[in-house]
Amino acid sequence: MSPKSDTIQSIINAGKIMDFINAKGQAGVREISKNLDIPKSTVFRILKSLEEIDYLLSTSDDEYAIGYKIHSLKPSLNKDTLLIKYSKDILKDFADLIGESINLAVNQKNKAYNIVYVDGEYYTLQANMPPESDLYCSSTGKIFLAYMDEASLKKYFNDELEKRTINTITRLDDFLKEKEEILKNDLSYDNEEYEYGLSCIATPIKKDGEVIAAMSISGPTTRLKFKNYDKLKEKLLEAKKKIEENIIY
């Protein structure tokens, strides 16, 4: 690989690392390396470089968080930053209560991008979860699709979508049937549509009637069934209400 290619790859890796830390709140070398499949030595070097220019800061737990320089690049706190601020403690308490992973995602360029991720009980697939996912095969993504205008929705499904599992919905007609239920119940599902063995339940987070984010529970299908889907949905909607009552822009 040429020096130029090395430089480009380093920039790409730095971006992935910052995205991961931003979604997690803070993370260490081992966790970043394992989740992003980047060598520990490379992760360590990038972390130290980003810390040196104040894009990251080192915490007392030998982990790293987003540094003040990133926030100072913005004239003021944006809505996503405020959403993280007002929801993070609620999401942490929720994850502790049910023992499953909780995601808070926003729609960025037709991708469900996790701005907060809280670990629950460990499961093998957890290590392979990316910080962003396609809308059509994720529970948070389906929330954004359900509230999309008709023209945008048709355009989205006109693209060729990968059928990741036998359950993945790739046709507009099939999604429209789900859309009715999503809008009726404020709940959407990923029934092993992104990955076999993984299921998710999501609900929209609204402010003044506008969907500003989506929150989901994710975990192994068998474990979620054992914990009772109806009870999990009830707790999810309770957490949704707390966040919506807590948001101040």
TrEMBL record:
One record GO biological process: negative regulation of DNA-templated transcription
Keywords: DNA-binding, Transcription, Transcription regulation
Cited SMART domains: HTH_ICLR
InterPro entries per the UniProt record, alphabetical: GAF-like_dom_sf, HTH_MetabolicPath_Reg, Tscrpt_reg_IclR_C, Tscrpt_reg_IclR_N, WH-like_DNA-bd_sf, WH_DNA-bd_sf
Pfam families per UniProt: HTH_IclR (PF09339), IclR_C (PF01614)
Ranges of residues in domain HTH iclR-type: 8-68
Protein name: Transcriptional regulator, IclR family, C-terminal domain protein
Record lineage: Bacteria, Bacillati, Bacillota, Tissierellia, Tissierellales
